[in-house]
User: Which sequence fits this backbone?
């Protein structure tokens, strides 16, 4: 099986020059069109596929992102694991703008999105009803990458690698964090922001859901790095604005680019066979159909 890395991102990651032998690929899915054409290429000999979540011209608002088509398109192209970035606001004083937060849980406050592949519609390749577990939310091996870890199960691994890369690059980071995902496109009111703080959430964003659990339904190890641009609106005199976020997104773009380029090199050094197999098993076991019913995209790779 060819190992291929999927990347979901925005500013700084849509540059075709980050890949060798880059080419655009236009795809269709059973769930419609993804946000933009995919960009395929290689990093240090590793095949990669990049998708801009909002489109390369940032023309798709959070509510209108076709998350199902985006994830399915990456799966169709054969990605083995997925790394994602998410521009986010901080809900805690110590999580300063410019920081990276390696998310490990979420609170979903969205309400207008297609939240499962298994919707019961006729002809849908995602058969049955799926009750995917949401803990662990992200893959721990991709989160941290430590030589002391050998093998955990399923979504317990991706962010280890990202954490080790942030340390190597000397970026300020937080190795865990809970994100509140709001519907958008508006920013929070001050009352809402303070409610989220009272829940002990760390950051706020508009796109991590349903992306994270759709990836789990497909059995693809997945990790999201929150890139902090602002303090939302809870902090007196430091309210979020489009101008502020746009300015800091440009400042932070190189961090995301450097982080992922280094992470890709580390990811390729790992054996992901068992990790990918376990992710598929968890996804298939979450579907309420007899085990002898074939769900093609959840077939355990041999």
Assistant:
């Amino acid at each position: 099986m060819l190992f291929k890395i999927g990347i979901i991102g925005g500013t700084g990651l849509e540059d075709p020059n980050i890949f060798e032998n880059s080419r655009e690929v236009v795809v269709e899915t059973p769930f419609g069109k993804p946000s933009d054409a995919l960009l395929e290429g290689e990093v240090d000999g590793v095949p990669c596929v990049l998708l801009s979540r909002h489109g390369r011209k940032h023309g798709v608002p959070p509510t209108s992102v076709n998350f199902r088509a985006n994830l399915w398109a990456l799966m169709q192209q054969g990605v083995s694991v997925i790394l994602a970035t998410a521009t986010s606001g901080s809900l805690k004083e110590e999580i300063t703008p410019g920081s990276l937060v390696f998310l490990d849980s979420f609170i979903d406050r969205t309400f207008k999105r297609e939240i499962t592949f298994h919707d019961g519609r006729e002809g849908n390749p995602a058969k049955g009803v799926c009750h995917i577990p949401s803990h662990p939310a992200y893959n721990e091996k991709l989160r941290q990458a430590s030589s002391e870890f050998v093998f955990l199960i399923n979504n317990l691994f991706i962010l280890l690698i990202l954490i080790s890369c942030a340390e190597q690059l000397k970026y300020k980071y937080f190795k865990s964090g809970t994100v509140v995902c709001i519907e958008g496109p508006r920013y929070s009111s001050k009352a809402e922001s303070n409610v989220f703080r009272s829940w002990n959430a760390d950051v706020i964003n508009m796109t991590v859901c349903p992306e994270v659990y759709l990836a789990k339904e497909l059995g693809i190890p997945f990790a999201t790095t929150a890139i902090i641009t602002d303090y939302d609106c809870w902090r007196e005199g430091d309210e979020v604005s489009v101008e502020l976020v746009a300015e800091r997104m440009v400042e932070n773009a190189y961090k995301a680019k450097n982080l992922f380029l280094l992470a890709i090199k580390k990811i390729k050094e790992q054996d992901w066979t068992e990790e990918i197999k376990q992710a598929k098993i968890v996804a298939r076991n979450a579907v309420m159909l007899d085990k002898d019913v074939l769900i093609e995209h959840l077939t355990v790779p041999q």
Observations:
- The domain at 5-298 is CATH 3.40.50.1580 (Rossmann fold).
- The chain has a mean pLDDT of 90.
- Helices lie at 67-76, 140-144, 159-169, 190-198, 208-217, 242-267, 273-285.
- The chain is about 30% helix and 20% strand.
